[in-house]
Amino acid sequence: MQQLDELSSLIAQHTKGDGVFSTAIPRLWLIRQSKRTEPFQGVQHPALCIIAQGSKQVLLADELYEYGPARHLVASADLPITSQVVEASPEHPYLSMRLDLDLAALGAMMLEVAQPAPITVQKTCGKALCISKSDPALLEAALRLVRLLDAPDDIAFLAPLIEKELLYRLMRGDQADKLRRMLMPESRLVQVNRAIAWIRDNYDKPFSIDRVASEARMSTSSLHAHFREVTAMSPLQYQKQLRLQEARRLIMSEALDAATAAHRVGYDSPSQFSREYRRLFGAPPIQDVSRLKVVPATYAQAGA
């Protein structure tokens, strides 16, 4: 598809080497990787991700999502994921763009845009991650947004208009219902997002399910059911993933020893921390971090 070829060319032009690159356009990121990566963990924030070249796998709990060119992923909550570039080479690198969702703009648009007719939900749209086919109108808007990087004087005026068009395309596409539920004040997705936000703010402290349910304005049974429906994990499993990811970041970026990092994120037992760390990341802390330091650019792609 000509649109994908041009989008690939533009992303390659504006990414020098492997990694995740911010741009002059607010909320727009470009990603490049010249080889298959190891699986890496991170938190995926609400975003639209479009792959121009190559392919990627995303694991949410035990549910696997794979997508490549002409398909896009939308995340509608903060989700601990494991991501891996599975198709890339120096000659044909993995190239993608990520637009972090402006929830305020989406909320305003929800009031303006008529709800489309119901669309059969795809199997790739069971949780707060959805994968859909990218139609030409969506790709054309994405392409025009990235083209603005070559016209910096136009960004301030035109980028918000094109971003609004992209949001409009999403609100009229087969993920419209999930996006609307993300924004409706008392929808289950909004309630679960309240629980997620509270856990993220208090991940290093013990908590009761009753407290989280109260923060979400749900019953405990409803919280358990709908939290798993959105995230594919329980609230306690979600907390554990956040703790371990933050401990990994502390060991990597602040050179903390494993015991100090474990205590910092809320673990009382170093041995329990070590067991759970190895279970999630596949190696003990010291060995895992030594491996990460060899591939820092790849590590930065977690969650992108």
TrEMBL record:
SMART domains: HTH_ARAC. Gene3D superfamilies: Homeodomain-like. Keywords: Transcription, Transcription regulation. Residues 193-291 form the HTH araC/xylS-type domain. The keyword Transcription regulation applies. This is AraC family transcriptional regulator.
